[in-house]
Amino acid sequence: MDLKLDGKTALITGSSKGIGEAIAKGLAREKAVVVVHGRDRAQTERVAEDVIIEGGRAYAVVGDLTIDDDVRRLVAEAQALAGPIDIVINNAGGSGDTEDWTNSRPASWASAYDRNVVAAVRVTTLLLPRMRQAKWGRVVNISSLTGLMPPASRPDYAACKAAMNAMTVSMAKAVAADGLTVNTVSPGTIHSARLDARFREVALEQRLAKDAPWETIEQTVLPMFAQVPVGRVGTVEEIADAVSFLVSPRAGYITGVNLRLDGGMLPTV
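-> structure tokens emitted (269 positions)
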């Protein structure tokens, strides 16, 4: 299926690694021009170079999304390099220290909110006016299943992702008449570098061979972490594919939704 993204330009925050990197590469494969963002210049430029080597079009911008001046500068730089931004993927964020209700600190909540929610607001509010004027634009906020199924630990992170979900619906209603769509993608248990390392650590504790194939590790360890009906973890490429569809002209009638990529893990309709 041709997603009709040739000529569209996307800024993907936090795309120097992990899910963001996969999204940037996925959009580039669909012929979008991608602006890779990160805080580490070498890592960010490496992803952009990978895209170019694979035949895509990419640029790199660096900046801290918790600093207003940095955001204004990097957005201006992105548009100077790549032209007007049609698509923004708010992927940057993440959790900090692992806290629970025995040691949760107000400062951690403020920091997490700034890093996950306010950072997305800083970027998006700079890009929305031109999108609305052009009568076309796409915003995707990368949330987490944690925002719908909050665990006892990391309550600050769960609250931030729930806030992103609400932000998406509000924004979608505000800009729908201008030809923009705004959606959320909520990954569940995804095969990241961190998850891989943790699963392999537990596999050794379960006396699996150090060089056991991933499929064996996954089948043994996954039930200890999450009850996923499809019986496996998701991949970053699956997230990238979902995002690529949501930002395409083919998804123009989809807005204000929270698309869960959780293998059926959330027990609700």
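The two ends are 29 Å apart (CA to CA).
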